[in-house]
Design a protein that fits this description.
Blueprint (H helix, E strand, L loop, with lengths): L1 E3 L6 E3 L4 E7 L2 E8 L1 H15 L4 H4 L10
Antiparallel strand pairs: 1-2, 3-4
Organism: Haloferax elongans ATCC BAA-1513
InterPro entries: DUF7569
Protein name: Small CPxCG-related zinc finger protein
Length: 68
């Protein structure tokens, strides 16, 4: 069986397919069938977005303070 990748649209064979299923409280939030390249890209984006922020990016500087 060959379906298309939800990321790039190329045909995806079952042995190479990766399914990404995200659920919150039992409700489906996202369900994607991805080719290996799009799956690797998805993992990279996930790791970047879910990694803790560095101390410098979460701390505001004095330039962010507005005095009225």
């Amino acid at each position: 069986m060959s379906d298309s990748c939800d990321g790039c649209g190329r045909a995806v064979e079952d042995p190479l397919a990766r399914r990404v299923r995200l659920q919150v409280d039992g409700s489906a939030v996202d369900d994607q069938r991805l080719c290996p390249t799009c799956f690797a890209d998805w993992i990279t984006r996930y790791e970047e977005q879910m990694s803790p922020q560095t101390e410098s990016s979460t701390t505001s500087s004095d330039a962010d303070i507005i005095v009225d």
